Amino acid sequence: MNPEEAIIKILEEKANFVCTLPCDKMKGLFGLVYKRLRYVPLTREEEGVGICAGAYLAGARPAMLIQSSGVGNTINALCSLTKFYEMPLPLLISWRGVYKEPIEAQKCMGKYLPRLFDALDIPYTTIEGKEDIPLIGDVLDNAYDNSVIHGILLSPKTWEGSMVRYTGSVRRKIPKAKCKSMNVKPKFRRYEIIQHIAPYLRGKVVVSNLGVPSKEVYNILDQDSNFYMLGSMGMASPIGLGISLNTEKEVFVIEGDGSLLMNPGTLSTVSAMKPRNLTIIAIDNGVYGSTGNQPTGTSECVDLACLASSMGIKKIFKAGDEKELKEVFNNLGDGPNFIHVVALPGNATVPNIPLSPLEIKKRVMRVLG
Question: Is-contact 139 90, C-beta < 8 A?
Answer without folding.
Answer: yes
